[in-house]
Amino acid sequence: MSAAELTPPEAALWADRTGLPLRADRHAAVAATANHIHSVVTVLRELDFGDTPPAAAYRAGEEKNDAAV
To answer: Is residue 14 scored above 80 in pLDDT?
Structure first.
């Protein structure tokens, strides 16, 4: 998928290619949903996570409270 927004006919084509044919009344909704997801992922790709460890390194209940010294 290019940077251009997905059109309803393209959504139908891609769905059909994956074996998930859509009813004609769903094409616009699926295209709109795909475009929204793409816009959110685009924003997430721009975030700088710096030294943030991966989620697998997180241990619930082991947070350090540096302010309480």
So the answer is: yes
Q: What is the C-alpha separation between 33 and 5, in angstroms, rounded?
A: 11
CB contact at 8 A, 35 and 5: yes
Threshold 0.70, pTM exceeds = no
**66: its two tokens:** 């540096």
The CA distance from 29 to 5, in Å, is 13
**Spatial distance between the Cα atoms of 61 and 25, rounded to a whole number of angstroms:** 48
Tokens of 46: 């721009």
Residue 12 CB neighbour total at 10 angstroms:
19
Give the Cβ contact number of residue 6 at 10 Å: 19
- How many residues would you count in the chain? 69
